Amino acid sequence: MLPQISREKQLGILRKMLMIRRAEEHVIRFNEDYEGLIRGHFHVYIGQEATGVSVCEALTPEDYVFSTHRNHGHVIAKGGDPGRVLAEIIGRETGYCRGRAGTFHVAAPDLGIIHTSAIVGGCLALAAGAAFASQVQESKAVTVVFFGDGAMEEGVFYEALNMAKLWQLPLIFLMENNYRRVGRSGTIYKTTSELARRTRAGEGPFFVEARTHPWPGNEGAHPKLVAGSTNIDWAWDAAAVPDAVRSWYAEGDPVLIFARELVKDGGVGRDEIQQLDAAVRKEADEAAHFALESPLPDPQDAVKFAYAGRES
After folding, report:
1. Which superfamily does 7-287 belong to?
2. What are the angstrom distances between the C-alpha of 18 and each of 23, 49, 121, 277, 300?
3. What is the per-residue pLDDT across 252-264, written as a single tens digit (0 to 9) for each?
4. 242 Cβ contact list (under 8 Å, min separation 6)
5. Where are the chain's structural domains?
6. 90-107 pLDDT, tens digit each
7. Any residues with CB less than 8 A from the CB of 36 and at least 6 apart, and which?
């Protein structure tokens, strides 16, 4: 049963979830179809779209988000341009960090995403610092820091948690646990909206666990499209999905689950969702083309942006 969220908001959440899915599918094809386009390992956000989108939809443009090695989805969820995200992933000048950050460190300060880190738990202390700055400046900004269950084995998690509680920082710890139960988009949005309101009122910090069902395409050394591109019609009939991964797409895919819920409880027609997906596919294709056609940084500019506030 969907919570009481406007139809427009529900479709907006689905649209961003679809955009993340289509963009990440392009990332995997960048690796599979091109030699050396992505240098080294990479991670994708497939299977966790409900969390990132629903949380970021509950925030304001002034709020801060700190991300992880699966940052692509968080940046798009906060309003990032998919073309600039994809361009950064393949090291192009038009990327958010002008090709210098790559897949692990896509950051967008203008969106409130100051830094991302591939280090497990690497952003926890930074997020606490940003929240402390907001408190000192008496701003109403809320900081959300995403991290996985593995980060709870790191000392910095407990240090940041302790400091945040001691000083009652405006900080939400958002742990994305690759468990076996899927988070519902509407529920996550409602929960985060309420916690963001309470955090602004000085009641923070808060800890949230979002459980997600691991996508089977992440099981190898590099993510693979184990069932090909997601077909939105699988929301109602997953018979065409390969047997080995059918259960995930039928029972664990947050995009397909939410699409199915919208048709069942939200008064949205299948044809409307199919049209929405077609529009998102077109936009994602254009974003991928933009990234591929963008220039590499000039080698002579390699030392630029080494210091804050300086281009040389």
Report:
1. Thiamin diphosphate (ThDP)-binding fold, Pyr/PP domains (3.40.50.970)
2. 8, 8, 27, 7, 38
3. 999 999 999 999 8
4. 226, 227
5. 7-287
6. 999 999 999 999 999 999
7. none
